[in-house]
């Protein structure tokens, strides 16, 4: 038989994509490609993935080690998934092994143990050797290396063992353990009423027909642009039903925050046990069980957050991305992939259909639809002709001029009071948690900052603490200023706790609940709060973006955006877009059922175009103004952004590295005559210069879309030479 070699991808940061190993077993290529294997790299045992079988090796044959063990009974990656991983490696410049690793649930990673087996009990005089042999004998002739090291704690044990192996006294063996306990208990209780079959309205029917046709043909990409409450979910459900009817599977991606029990219940009610749910609140064992249910074809519909784009469905028919503009679709860890792009690519490879849905599509996606890269489906009306809510802007500068120093305008208070009287529900939205967002001394002006991060501490009234929202640092509120000892400590900038507190004082009889990351830490807290709102056991819901999107609260008629400026003032080229999306989405929670809705937006910049467009529910007008700015300033979609981050504990080193790298980049672009195609911003301190005791600097490149592929490998190589640097292509956040 001809020798065969496996090309194995390993999840190691640098080095080559694959390594060659000898195949000793008599197994067909098809049962090897895509299979997990245990191999030695240097003297480390590792789990790897066989991506190819060849008859030649990339190094001299006698240096090649064998594959130590094969895992699973059959390949875990299909050819299509391997192809997707190869594409990710090129697209995101990540190791092939890292791309493959992120396609598996965390629990699938094997724990490999090196075992020592006693072959014969030679008589030895060497003290260490006899200790080893005795220990092995006491353990029935077989011990894990780590356990043996504990019993025989000598430094040179490895070389002693090597001698014993050479003399045929012992041998090595590997055992492989999956590191999770398998648990298949995941079952969210249905929370909303049962779902009867829905007859689609005209605009839904058009969208469903177009998508179904594409699913039949196995090709197509759509942007479903439907206003809030236009019934996008029903379009997804019916398209998925159709895919299932013709024997195909579907993946539905939703942002983590909208993976609510409501969403899950909706899908479970429609598709029963064919649904697999995938989100970060699942334990490792639950994820593992779900993954195998999908892999084995027991689940045909997967509902999940970003990483569900890799769900191992067998016959892909459809991938839906709801709220496609959400930043959570972009991973900020290696591989730094964008689930929208991965979904598109996966659909191309597996003859699936892509549906991106949103009331407020990202500029990039809408631009792509305009160019004809995907088909635009529009649903301009709410279901049953319900009007979009009326939006009013309140200029908070005038409130101050009037002498109203509270966080609520007169108009908003009046509207809440009216709603309470009428027995209707209200939402107060605030994009920051905590009580006060910064605390300072009135005497000397000192602002209390985190000692580890360049950021103000947030006051949390329930615990009487100041907290850092980045690293979790906490201290009790100081009674006097740490610098000047004055007792005049003041609190500024309201967060959700403060809103809740003030609202309870003003309306003592109102039933108020707050929903933000602080109140949903306990298991099921999230579900319980939503349940209170659905059952109308709450009058006023106060919350962060957690309540802004995707939720269908039929009885809410008033939404107050307490401070629209918090998102507007973030130093990021997307801040106008984020503000427009947020205000439109949160406004979209109002007036979804019988009664008309009303929205009040408080701001210090009422003339801002993103707010003006949001007031009129005019996506087109916002898009036209914003896309013009992007084009003029060469921001995406008119360029690719490469963010190079440098971080470390010693600031001068970081600055030096940033300056050196910028110099190198300038040189390189000069030599390549790319000066007109790439703009270099920085080096400069990141907007948050210090986080968790690490200083952060950055260099931003705006790269012409046409030359991105020509230079990205060179830039990556440059960045890789600096151990303190990393790069992200088209990051979602510039902070
Ligand atoms: N054809 C229909 N007939 C009656 N009711 C419908 C129909 N389609 C959807 N609905 C109902 O309309 C409401 C709004 O639909 P849905 O939540 O899907 O809107 P959406 O477009 O996803 O909005 P958002 O962008 O705000 O999440 C839901 O309560 C849904 O059950
Ligand atoms: Zn901190």
Automatic annotation (TrEMBL):
GO biological process, one term: DNA replication, synthesis of primer
EC number: 5.6.2.4
Keywords: ATP-binding, DNA replication, DNA-binding, Helicase, Hydrolase, Isomerase, Metal-binding, Nucleotide-binding, Primosome, Zinc
Pfam family, one: DEAD
Family matches, as InterPro entries: DEAD/DEAH_box_helicase_dom (IPR011545), Helicase_ATP-bd (IPR014001), Helicase_C-like (IPR001650), P-loop_NTPase (IPR027417), PriA (IPR005259), PriA_3primeBD (IPR041222), PriA_3primeBD_sf (IPR042115), PriA_C (IPR041236)
Chain residues that bind Zn(2+) 2: 450, 453, 468, 471
Cofactor info, note text: Binds 2 zinc ions per subunit.
Residue span(s) of domain Helicase C-terminal: 476-641
Quaternary structure (record): Component of the replication restart primosome.
Sequence similarity: Belongs to the helicase family. PriA subfamily.
Official protein name in the record: Replication restart protein PriA
Species the sequence originates in: Mahella australiensis (strain DSM 15567 / CIP 107919 / 50-1 BON)
């Amino acid at each position: 038989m001809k020798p065969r070699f496996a090309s194995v991808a390993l999840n190691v940061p640098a080095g080559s994509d694959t390594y060659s190993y000898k195949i000793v077993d008599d197994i067909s290529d098809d049962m090897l490609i895509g299979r997990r294997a245990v191999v030695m790299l240097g003297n480390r045992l590792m789990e790897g993935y066989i991506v190819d079988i060849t008859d030649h090796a990339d190094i001299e044959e006698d240096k090649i080690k064998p594959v130590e063990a094969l895992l699973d009974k059959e390949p875990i990656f299909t050819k299509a998934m391997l192809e997707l991983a190869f594409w990710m490696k090129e697209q995101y410049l990540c190791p092939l092994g890292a791309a493959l690793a992120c396609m598996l649930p965390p629990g699938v990673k094997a724990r490999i143990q090196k075992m020592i087996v006693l072959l014969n009990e030679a008589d030895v005089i060497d003290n260490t050797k006899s200790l080893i042999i005795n220990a092995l004998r006491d353990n029935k002739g077989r011990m894990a290396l780590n356990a043996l090291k504990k019993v025989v704690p000598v430094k040179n044990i490895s070389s002693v063992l090597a001698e014993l192996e050479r003399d045929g006294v012992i041998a090595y063996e590997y055992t492989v353990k999956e590191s999770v306990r398998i648990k298949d208990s995941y079952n969210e209780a249905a929370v909303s009423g049962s779902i009867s079959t829905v007859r689609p309205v005209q605009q839904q029917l058009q969208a469903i027909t177009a998508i179904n046709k594409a699913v039949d043909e196995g090709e197509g990409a759509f942007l479903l642009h439907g206003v809030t409450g236009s019934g996008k979910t029903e379009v997804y459900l019916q398209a998925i039903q159709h895919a299932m009817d013709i024997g195909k599977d579907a993946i539905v991606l939703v942002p983590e925050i909208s993976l609510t029990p409501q969403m899950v219940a909706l899908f479970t009610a429609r598709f029963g046990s064919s649904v697999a749910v995938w989100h970060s609140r699942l334990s490792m064992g639950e994820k593992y069980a779900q993954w195998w249910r999908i892999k084995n074809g027991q689940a045909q519909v997967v509902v999940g957050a970003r990483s569900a784009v890799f769900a191992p469905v067998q016959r892909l028919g459809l991938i839906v991305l709801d709220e496609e503009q959400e930043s959570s679709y972009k991973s900020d860890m290696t591989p730094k992939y964008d689930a929208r792009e991965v979904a598109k690519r996966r659909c191309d490879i597996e003859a699936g259909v892509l549906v991106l849905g949103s009331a407020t599509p990202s500029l990039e996606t809408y631009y792509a639809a305009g160019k004809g890269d995907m088909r635009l489906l529009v649903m301009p009306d709410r279901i049953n002709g319900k009007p979009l809510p009326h939006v009013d802007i309140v200029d908070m500068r005038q409130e101050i001029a009037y002498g109203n120093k509270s966080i609520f305008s007169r108009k908003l208070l009046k509207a809440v009071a009216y709603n309470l009287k009428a027995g209707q529900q209200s939402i107060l939205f605030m994009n920051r948690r905590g009580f006060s967002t910064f605390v300072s001394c009135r005497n000397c002006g000192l602002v209390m900052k985190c000692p580890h991060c360049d950021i103000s501490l947030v006051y949390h009234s329930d615990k009487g603490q100041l907290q850092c929202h980045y690293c979790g640092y906490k201290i009790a509120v100081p009674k006097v200023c740490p610098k000047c000892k004055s007792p005049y400590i003041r609190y500024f900038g309201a967060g959700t706790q403060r809103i809740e507190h003030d609202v309870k004082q003003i309306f003592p009889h109102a039933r108020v609940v707050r929903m933000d990351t602080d109140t949903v830490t306990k298991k099921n807290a999230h579900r319980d709060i939503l349940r209170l709102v659905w059952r109308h056991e709450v009058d006023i819901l106060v919350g962060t973006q957690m309540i802004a999107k995707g939720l269908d609260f039929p009885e809410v008629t008033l939404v107050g955006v307490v401070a629209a400026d918090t998102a507007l003032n973030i130093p990021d080229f997307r801040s106008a877009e984020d503000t427009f999306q947020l205000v439109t989405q949160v406004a979209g929670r109002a007036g979804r059922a019988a009664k008309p809705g009303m929205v009040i937006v408080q701001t210090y910049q009422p003339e801002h175009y993103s707010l003006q467009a949001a007031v009129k529910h005019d996506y087109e007008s916002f898009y036209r103004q914003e896309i013009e700015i992007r084009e003029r300033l060469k921001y995406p979609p008119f360029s690719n952004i490469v963010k190079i981050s440098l971080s470390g504990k010693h600031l001068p080193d970081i600055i030096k590295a940033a300056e050196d790298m910028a110099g190198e980049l300038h040189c390189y672009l000069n030599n390549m005559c790319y000066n007109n195609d790439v703009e270099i911003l920085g080096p400069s301190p990141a907007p948050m210069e210090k986080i968790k005791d690490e200083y952060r600097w950055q260099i931003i490149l705006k790269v012409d879309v046409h030359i991105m592929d020509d230079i990205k490998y060179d830039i990556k190589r440059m960045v890789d030479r600096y151990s303190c640097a990393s790069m992200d292509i088209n990051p979602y956040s510039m902070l």
